Amino acid sequence: MTHSGPSAFAEVNEKVAQAGEILGLKSGVINALSSCEREVVISIPLRRGDDVEVLTGYRVQHSSARGPRKGGIRFHQDVDLDEVRALASLMTWKTALIDVPFGGAKGGVAVDASKLSPIEKEEIIRRWTRSLVHVLGHHRDIPAPDMGTDARTMAWLMDEYHRLEGFQPACVTGKPVELFGAPGREEATGRGVALIAAATLKQHDVKVKGATVAIQGFGNVGRYAALVCQELGMKVIAISDVSGGIVDKKGIDIASIFMHKSLENVEADERIGSAEVLEIECDILIPAALGSVINDKNASLINARFIIEGANQPITISADRELRAQGVVIVPDILANSGGVMGSYFEWTQNIQEFSWPIEKFRRELDTRMEAAFFNVHKVSRKYSVDLRTAAFVVSVGRVSEAFELRGSLV
Ligand code: NAD
Q1: Which H/E stretch holds residue 365?
Q2: Any atom of ligand 1 within 6 Å of the Cβ of 220
Q3: Contact 99, 119 (CB under 8 A)
Q4: For the segment 184-209, what is each residue's pLDDT rounded down to a tens digit?
């Protein structure tokens, strides 16, 4: 992670403590909610030519107070224990916020996914699954894709799990539709981000049609967010990925570039750097790639009225403070990108029931539940006169602490 300053996990826990104080929770309970239930670190020997390279893999289970732990697996060179802890904790708050019966977890492997062949990727995820099978399972801990992993990776994970434990497709979500996946899951995170962007505009009496959007990231989240923003009538004027960015003030036709793997060879009016997209003048800015991309160095250069956090932790706490002082409205990650885990919940329930929904039902359920979470966060924000991120944490910390106390987890 490009994180500088306090650790990512400490930043999440700062919000947990703040919400705990607002709710009047006991300090011991706040401490419990700021710790991870279980952390497993593994080594993954990977064949490289005649030699072996040893990678480090992780699974951190933050909380099971409200249900089986749930969270993605990230393949990225910057993955470390602190980042995985932070992301596992965010999953607890996200699942509680949208009221699905899951806890929180996250996994990762410190490796540059762009340099792996498909066979190497398969070897890594199979080894990761074999080493962690004792803590995984559809009622224990359910992985999903994240940066650097995708539906194919989840298919390999499921296959390895089945070899060891027998048939149980609900052991992982984000699978290919042809292999127990749910139609709608792949687009769910980006769709949710776009819906929240539209709802935010309406909430502030800004017309959705023609509202300008800039997006960092053209992966699973960024590309679907861009596509659905366009479908809803917004104008995507800039988008970037790791190879750089493109700008067109008249609006980029996202549908026509959607199938491009990278933006590198896409023709455009103007080309910019990967990070420059964050400084474009627009109504809505959607960071949908890495964490901490908006920080003390560039907070004053942001030129957007609303920021919808597609990525996890794209804004550092101090930059968040500065932007709010400038009047920027920030919709936090645990609300804005929760469509992914909502979609995973739908896939999980369908696998368990051995019954599949048509995509229309999937989208309807997603839209209704995201809207409910959005309005609830606004209601709590008004009730306590706090910003949206604090309000979101108040809702989720309240729910998790209640479950924690009711379970009598201390005996
Ligand atoms: P992905 O691997 O599919 O795509 C990542 C994108 O970011 C790619 O387009 C890549 O080129 C781009 N990128 C990487 N480095 C960059 C840089 N320095 N500058 C600009 N762009 C850069 O990942 P994803 O699944 O889309 O996830 C993106 C973010 O959203 C992550 O923070 C992830 O945790 C979060 N998220 C994902 C999901 C999901 O369902 N996939 C759900 C919730 C949150």
Answers
A1: helix 359-384
A2: yes
A3: no
A4: 999 999 999 999 999 999 999 999 99
127 and 255 in a single domain? The answer is no
- Residue from 106, 121, 175, 235 carrying the catalytic annotation: 106
User: Which residue has its alpha carbon closest to ligand 1 atom 3?
Assistant: 219
Name the band, by pLDDT with cuts 50, 70 and 90, for residue 272: very high
pTM score over 0.85? yes
Residue 410 has pLDDT above 60, yes or no: no
The CATH number for 117's domain is 3.40.50.10860
- Is residue 297 flagged as an active site residue? no
CA distance 173 to 359: 16
Residue-level pLDDT at 2? 46
Q: Which residues contact 39 (CB under 8 A, 6 or more apart)?
A: 58, 59, 60, 61, 81, 85
- Domain C-terminal end among 171, 198, 231: 171
Query: Do residues 161 and 240 both lie within one domain?
Result: no
Pair (258, 157) in one structural domain: no
Does 294 sit in the ligand 1 pocket, CB within 6 Å?
Answer: no
Containing structural domain, residue 295? 188-336
Nearest CA to ligand 1 atom 15: 242
- Distance from the CA of 208 to the center of ligand 1, in angstroms? 25
